[in-house]
Amino acid sequence: LFVQDHIEWGRWTLSPGFRYENIDLLRTDYSLNDAQRRNPIRVRTNGVDVLIPGVGVHFELSSSWGFFGGIHKGFAPPGPGSNEDTKTESSLNYEFGFRLHNRRVALEVAGFVNDYDNLLGVDTLSAGGSGEGDLFNGGKVLVKGLEVSGTFDLSHILRSSLRLPVRFAYTFT
């Protein structure tokens, strides 16, 4: 279930919302020698029932400039490779930034902080694990960063009738 609203008041826009998810997970593993899949060697179950709120705000400084921010709860289910002890991935995410948008250019700069209560990890050989692919609780993590993205149409500089859009994006964490 997903519910969101956009509330406009003058040059301000408030966008509160929430998502509700109910997930039942079941994974049945069989031996490689059991081609008919009659005798499972392991059965794993897990369940998730979560409410995920968030709110965003935007202030229109002019027809081209705007400032924005938001606070959102982050969530990822543990997946079918989990067992009953594996918790959901959860975080509280903050963002703030500004946007410039006109006929020739669009630019967005945003700072963000993702504060994880529980980051999920995967047991892989490349990460030094056993390679089982099992999910595990990774613990608390704080991620901070800056994102810059934009578009520009080079046809204005080259005086071309063809559109020549250029896009870029950069994330620093």
Order of helices and strands: EEEEEEEEEEHE
Global structural class? mainly beta
Average predicted local confidence, pLDDT: 90
- Helical element count? 1
Brief write-up:
The chain contains one helix and eleven strands. Helices cover 2% and strands 65% of the residues.
Task: Give an overview in words.
The protein has one helix at 155-158; strands at residues 2-4, 7-9, 12-30, 40-60, 65-76, 89-101, 105-118, 120-122, 135-137, 141-153, 165-172. It has 173 residues and is an all-beta fold.
List its salient traits.
173 residues, single chain, two-stranded antiparallel sheet
What topology emerges from the helices and strands here?
Blueprint: E1 2-4, E2 7-9, E3 12-30, E4 40-60, E5 65-76, E6 89-101, E7 105-118, E8 120-122, E9 135-137, E10 141-153, H1 155-158, E11 165-172
